Amino acid sequence: LDRQLADRTRALERLSARMLRQHEEERRRLSRELHDETAQVFSAVKMQLEALRGSLADGAAPRLDRLLSLVNTGIASIRQVTSDLRPTLLDDLGLRPALHSLVTDFTEGSGLRATFSAPATLPTLSGDADLAVFRGLQESLSNVVRHAEATQVDVTVTVSGDSLTLSVQDNGRGFPTLRGGRLRDTDHRMGLTGMRERLLAAGGSLHIANRVPGAEVELTVPTPSTSL
Fold first, then answer.
1. Residue 64 and residue 53 in contact, taking contact as beta carbons nearer than 8 Å
2. Contact call for residues 217 and 210 (beta carbons, < 8 A)
3. If phi over 0 gives left and psi between -120 and 50 gives alpha, with beta otherwise, what is residue 94?
4. Do residues 172 and 182 touch, judged by C-beta distance below 8 A?
5. What is the pTM (predicted TM-score) of this model?
6. Cβ neighbour number for residue 98 with a 10 Å cutoff
């Protein structure tokens, strides 16, 4: 019975990993289509509108400016959606710049203080692993804004001989706890289930804990030497 249970568990883990990869591939495809087609159409419309400026009747310029403002808003929205679907920085520049960019955008968007510390260079991880770390930081920062009531966030990346660890620590109210101090099951509400599944598919792990003050989310993935 134990053997059957273990076999079924491994089968479910493989199925989950395959579904996550298919999900990310679909996100990548949608991101490319939005960027290559929809964004290009918006850009072409903007150019045509700009070309009309010299032939407009008196008093029509403000209406053109409003139209251009709407087009610019549409272009910005598409760029944000494509970035959310598939992080282009991760593909183009690698994990460290992508993580740093997430923290910078978080600070600008939320107004909270945030620090980022990481080695100058990070090992090249598998595609599953670096995406799991990126998505994990993305979700963790989102949780800080939505749930933590924090004013400070510290993001730290460390590399040991066989693993890479990303820690997100805030000074907020911490995770909900049950009587006796045990953490309440908040995985589904806070997006931790998807984070945990991504890390598991990449051979990694997720650890969450309350600190004084605040909470810490710790993501660990294997480096190439141990993921073979």
1. yes
2. no
3. left
4. no
5. 0.69
6. 21
Q: Are strands 113-117 and 152-159 parallel, antiparallel or unpaired?
A: parallel
Find out whether 100 and 116 touch, Cβ atoms under 8 Å. yes
Task: State the pLDDT at residue 140.
Answer: 92
Mean pLDDT of 176-193: 59
- The rounded Cα 177 to chain-centroid distance in angstroms is 26
pLDDT single digits (tens) 99-151: 999 999 999 989 999 999 999 999 988 878 988 999 899 999 998 988 878 99
Structural contact between residues 183 and 135, judged by C-beta atoms closer than 8 angstroms = no
Give φ, ψ of 158 to 5 degrees. Answer: -130, 150
Instruction: Give the type of residue at 35.
Output: H
Given a contact cutoff of 8 angstroms between Cβ atoms, the answer to whether 159 and 123 are in contact is: yes
Which residues touch 54 (CB under 8 Å, ≥6 apart)? none
CA-to-CA distance for 136 and 196, rounded, in angstroms? Answer: 9
Q: Please answer whether residues 221 and 164 qualify as being in contact, where contact means their C-beta atoms are separated by less than 8 angstroms.
A: yes
DSSP 8-class letter at 177: B
Helical packing angle, 192-201 and 2-33, nearest 10°:
100
Task: For residue 78, give both structure tokens.
Answer: 């598409």
Which backbone phi and psi does 213 adopt, to 5 degrees?
Answer: -90, 175
